[in-house]
């Protein structure tokens, strides 16, 4: 299950950065392309975010993570590049 979580964490981070890129780079230059890309990127990010949180909750009990580690891992999904930090710091041995 850790391998699945690691994959979801990386994909969630990439989708988060894709959303930011769409908002910051595409929106000012091409509004039609921005609106076209917003739904599929946003939907993928939403599904990956929910999957990340559910897997983190499941792994908290399976791996006996303490609340501090669990909180940092969950907080990593809210901060840009946070999932990459979580992958490097907490999921390195997978």
Report on this model:
By secondary structure, this protein is an all-alpha fold. The protein has one domain. 81% of the residues lie in helices and 0% in strands. The chain contains 4 helices and no strands. Helix 1 packs antiparallel against helix 2 and helix 1 packs antiparallel against helix 4. The radius of gyration is 15 Å and the shape is elongated. The model has no long low-confidence stretch (mean pLDDT 93).
Q: Whole-Å distance between the termini?
A: 10 Å
Strand portion, in percent?
A: under 5%
Helix content: over 70%
Indicate the structural class.
mainly alpha
Overall outline: elongated
SSE diagram, text form:
Layout: H1 2-26, H2 31-63, H3 67-75, H4 82-90
Helix pairs in contact: 1-2, 1-4, 2-3
Entry keywords:
single chain; 4 helices; transmembrane; 94 residues; transmembrane helix; DUF3817_TM; mainly alpha
Short description:
It is found in: Cell membrane. The chain has 94 residues and is mainly α.
């Amino acid at each position: 299950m850790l391998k699945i979580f690691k994959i979801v964490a990386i994909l969630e981070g990439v989708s988060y950065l894709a959303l930011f890129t769409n908002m910051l780079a595409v929106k000012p230059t091409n509004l039609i392309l921005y609106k076209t890309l917003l739904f599929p990127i946003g939907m993928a990010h939403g599904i990956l975010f929910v999957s990340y949180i559910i897997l983190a909750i499941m792994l908290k009990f399976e791996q006996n993570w303490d609340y501090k580690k669990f909180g940092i891992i969950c907080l990593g999904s809210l901060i840009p590049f946070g999932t990459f930090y979580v992958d490097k710091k907490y999921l390195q041995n997978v």
